[in-house]
Amino acid sequence: MSRSTEGGGTSAARSRLLGKATEIFYAEGIHSVGIDRLTAEAQVTRATLYRHFSGKEDLVLAYLDRADRMIRGRVDAAARADGRSAADRVRDVGRSIVEDIRSPGFRGCAFLNAVAEYPDPAHPVHRAVLAHRQWFLDTVTGLLAQTADAPADAAGRQFVMLRDGAMAAGCLFDPQLISETFLEGVEGILRDRAGHGPSALP
């Protein structure tokens, strides 16, 4: 395996780069952060960065992939919990979102933040965001479908919209209040499902 000169093997250098990019991209945005700053703060050379990533766009995609895998892990753990009812698993997914909102340094949804900077639907970053969101919508809709013998497509969309609103508001207002409001909204969806009532506003 080739070695870097920045304090360890190539995997360590890549890990530092991705860790620093994740920290800065999430806290400050993507376009505002240049390669020079990333390499300086990760304590690597430009040559090392380009050995691991074809460019900044590739690093951005790796950042989003890392966020995607982290979120999938939490949501999948909640969705597959043994001995939990389908409704409780939906609640667990909601609680995993609330944990993010209440965490120190919360700056909203990494994917919504990224897509705001990459509005072109053909751009790889934009497509990565849409793929993540489609997975999340499909997963939540599948869970909600198990809570009642009724179509769950509208309920799934409602859940995602509630989540989007909570993630946007959670870094602007009181995160405790936003979290409680979001979880109340999830309960409203589940009540509608349990009563087979309308899952969309009139």
Which helices and strands occur, and which strands form pairs?
Layout: H1 10-28, H2 35-42, H3 46-52, H4 56-79, H5 86-101, H6 110-117, H7 124-145, H8 153-169, H9 175-194
Helix pairs in contact: 1-2, 1-4, 4-5, 4-7, 5-9, 6-7, 7-8, 8-9
Overview of the structural elements:
By secondary structure, the protein is mostly helical. The chain has 2 domains: about 1-55, Homeodomain-like (Arc Repressor Mutant, subunit A), CATH 1.10.10.60; about 55-195, Tetracycline Repressor, domain 2, CATH 1.10.357.10. Helix content is about 70%, strand content about 0%. Helix 4 packs across helix 5 (about 85-100) and helix 5 (about 85-100) packs antiparallel against helix 9 (about 175-195). It starts with 9 loop residues before the first helix and ends in an 8-residue tail after the last helix. Mean pLDDT is about 90; it is low at about 1-10.
Compose a concise summary of this entry.
This protein is mostly helical and 202 residues long.
Defining key terms:
202 residues; mainly alpha; Arc Repressor Mutant, subunit A; Tetracycline Repressor, domain 2; 2 domains; disordered N terminus; TetR family transcriptional regulator; Homeodomain-like_sf; transcription
CATH superfamily of the largest domain: Tetracycline Repressor, domain 2
- Quote the beta fraction: under 5%
**How many separate helices?**
9
Question: How many discrete structural domains?
Answer: 2
CATH second-level architecture of the largest domain = Orthogonal Bundle
Number of distinct beta strands:
0
State the end-to-end distance: 62 Å
Structural class: mainly alpha
Mean pLDDT, all residues: 90
Helical fraction equals 55-70%
